[in-house]
Please model this.
Amino acid sequence: MPGLLSSPVCLTVIWFLSWSLHPSCAQIWTDEVSGTQYGHLESNVTLACGKSQFRIPVVWHLNHSSALPWHKVTSDGALVLLHVGHSAQGIYSCYDNRGLLLHSVKLRLGHPPGLLSISCQVPNHTHVRCSWMESVKTFLPAQYNASFRGNGQEWMPCVMDVTRKHCDVDHPAFWQTIHTLRITETNALGSETTYVRFKLHELLKPNPPESVFAKELEGYPKRLIVSWNFPSSWPLHEAFPLVFQIRYRPQGSMYWSEIYSEESPVVIFDALAGHLHQVQIRARDEVNADSQWSEWSPLLLVRPWEVYTTPDPAEQLPPDERFPDYFFPFNTKPETSTAKSHNPVPEDESNLGLVILLVLFSVVILITVPSLIYVMWVRQRRRDHVTKQELTSMVKMKSMPI
Model:
C-alpha cells in the first residue's frame, strides 16, 4: 500500500486535486482583485470579470447578494448594468460554476464636473478671497487647481482651502484694471475649467467697523456719543483712510438720520429725549468712489441721559400704610365729593387762568394801539387842512389892491 501511494501516477493525481481545490490558487489563475471602477449615473455600465481569456460560465453578486439591478451578462462573462442609479453602487463579485471567486470590483457612480459659480471678496488692498460652488453635484471626490493673474501678467497660484471651497491671493496687482481667476475641477469622469474676470477696485468692500459703542452724554438729554474702531482686516489706516456712515433713529420710527465722519467718536445732537434709539455704522474706502460700503454693524440700543428724581418714600408705600389708623380716630374713608371740595385749586387751573389773562391783555393791546394810531392820523390830517386854508387866504389878501 505505501508503494502504491508513492507511485508517480498517484502523486500526480493527488497534486492536481489539491491544486484545483485550493482557493488561493484559483484566484491567481483567474486574476487579481481590482480596485474601484467609476461610471456615469443614468447610463449603462459594463463590469468585466477580470482579465482571463477563458470563457466559462460565471455568476455575479452585489455586496454578497445574488439580487442585482436591471442587467444582462454577455457571453464572455461581463456584467452590463442598464440605466444605473445610486442603488447600483457597491462591490460586485463574479464566481465560476464551482463558487470560486474570480474577480471583485467596487462601483461608484456620479457625474463629470460642470462650470463653477465663483464670487470674490476684497476686504482690503492687500488680500483677495475667492470662493466657489458647484453647479453640478457630481457625487464623486474631486481635486481643484486655482490660479490668478492681472491683465498681461503671469499666472500666480491662488492658495486653496478645499474643505471651505475658497482660495486666497496676497498682495495682488491692484493697479491692474482687469484680473482673471481660473479654477479647474477634476474627478474620475472628467474635468472642467471655469474662468471669471473682475475689477478689484469695484469689489473693494471693507468689513464692518468693530467695537462699536454708544452711550449717553451726561447732562444733555438730546445727545448721544458713538465710538468705534477700524476693521481689523483693514491694516493701512493712514495710507487708505475710511469714511464712516452713522445712522440712528428712535425705536419704532421708520426714518433714519445720518452722519458722516472720518474719525471716532461722534456726538449726535438731535436725539429724541426720553426715547430708546437704534444705532448702526458702516465703512467705505474714502478715496475710491467705485468701492462698496461694508455691511452694517450689529444694531445697538441706547437711551439719552435723563434726570433722575428720587421718589418720595411715602408714595412707594401701599395706601393703607401711608396713613396709619392711629392718625384717624374716626372713619378714614371720606366720601369722594367731600374730599374734592376741600382740595386747593390745582396748579394746572392756575396756569390756565394766567394764560387767559395774558390773552385778554394781548387783545386789548392789539385793539388800543391801532385806534390811537388812527386818531393821531386824523388829527394830523385836520391840522394840515387848516394850515392849507390859512395860506390860501393870505395869498388872496396880498393880491388885492390897496
Summary: DSSP finds eight helices and 22 strands in the chain. Residues 121 and 280 are 22 Å apart (CA to CA). The longest strand covers residues 101-110.
